[in-house]
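Q&A log
Question type: sequence-to-structure
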Amino acid sequence: MNKTETKLLNIFSDLDKNDQSSVLSFAEFLLDKAKQDGRLIVVDKPVDIPRPEEERVVAAIKRLSATFPMLKKNSMLNETASLMSEHILKGREAKDVIDELEILFKVRYDEFCQQREPDIDLENDSENGIE
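Response status: OK
Response body:
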């Protein structure tokens, strides 16, 4: 997380629930406006980059990062570094490490998609009188 994100999170956590709701509503407004103005490119679908037959672990991480550009890579740094260390320091086969990296990225993508779905559920619940 960069300094701006940390500062925003700290400020947000100091606010009461009503003010947090206002901040969230304003952020969503800004996001919608940026999308409408074409200032924001939202990538929700993975880019189809096939896995080469022969691939090094570092190249696989770069490929998977490009395949899933919507994921925040810094949140995956510990896991990817751990897998890379297993390959380099412990001699674990590159193919096995890459298989596990692919699973990691796919799981994180599924989590990314699930985080977006509750917004739809909340809208439907509000329409149905559920809050």
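Response note: The chain has two domains: 3-42, 57-126.
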